[in-house]
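User: Show me a protein chain along with its predicted structure.
Assistant: Here is one chain, sequence first, then structure tokens.
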Amino acid sequence: MKIFIRLMLVSMLFGLVQKATYAQGEAAVPFLLLAPDSRGGAMGESGTGLADNSAAIFWNPAGIAFLRGSEVSITHSNWLPQFHLDLFYDYLTYRQYIPSISGSVTSSITYMNFGEFVRTGPDSPTPIGTFNSFDAALTLGYATQLSDDWGVGFNFRIIHSRLSDQPTANEQGSGVATTVSFDVAGMWRPGKLVLPLLDSNIGGDFSVGVNLSNMGPKIYYIDRAQADPIPTNFRLGFAYQIFHDKYNSLLYTLDFSKLLVSKDSTTSKEFYQAIFDSWTDRPFNEELRSIQTSMGVEYWYGEPGNFLFALRAGYFYEDPSFGNRKFLSFGAGIRYDIYGFDFSYLTSSVFPGGDQSPLNDTLRFTVSIGWGGIPGATRGLPRGL
């Protein structure tokens, strides 16, 4: 039982989602909320309005509707480096445009490894074996354009959580659970938005994205009476190309995110109820404070089709009463031919007490290969293809 409780604590800790200090924050499998790619991670963990590569299956699957060709990418990160634990996170994505179905099929595999644990008996600290613990998810999706400037995307996901490998003492459950979820998303890319009274190079592509993700039944490890909701999440994002010329471009992103889970001290509501009730179960000013804000900038130098270099920075803010996470993020990327490499670094040490944050010094690395051009290398938002 002690091992199972420890694993539950680790599972909640690494996600660093909103805690039980307010009832709405109690959700299982928080790994589903982790920013999966280095590019979005470097931009303050924002990307709902950008969503122009295969990682859009997480940020906003509707963004993939505007892409053509194929792409595969893989991201790796050692998680919670401050704790020196054997935790790591891997994320694999693939997308393929298929003209015959007028859209793209997408897929991703998310894997969070918690490491190896020593099993002990119910009444003795003597080791009796070891086991590995992990969370994983397989996502399949489809995205298509409704018009030149509108796209939609849908995902279906199988979630598997293995916190233990067998029942302990008199527990009814084994510590293994499986459930499903789905996402619905939309993207509007109206094209060029030029600010008045400014140089013609200032102002470019603009987009707005919405993603409602992880809608699905509760997950339970012991019995249905102790089931927990999965982290249904709402994202609204914007992306705007501030400046561009032949060799330079500057992009700005802004995301707002809210966890849609409604739970009191004894029960939690089903996702189809929580989607609405989680906006009204507290005073309106508290609901607004529960919204996370993230933003980022991305600068590209180079000529599309040749070698390109990117610098990125971002900021993430969470209200002190609803998690109190604040951090800066930085990163860089290169594109050459069909290949891309990105990395990001997260730091909270610049804020008072921030050096104690478990997320401090987190690094992500992403490698991508794109056939028909790597997304992002055009330094603009794809539209009407």
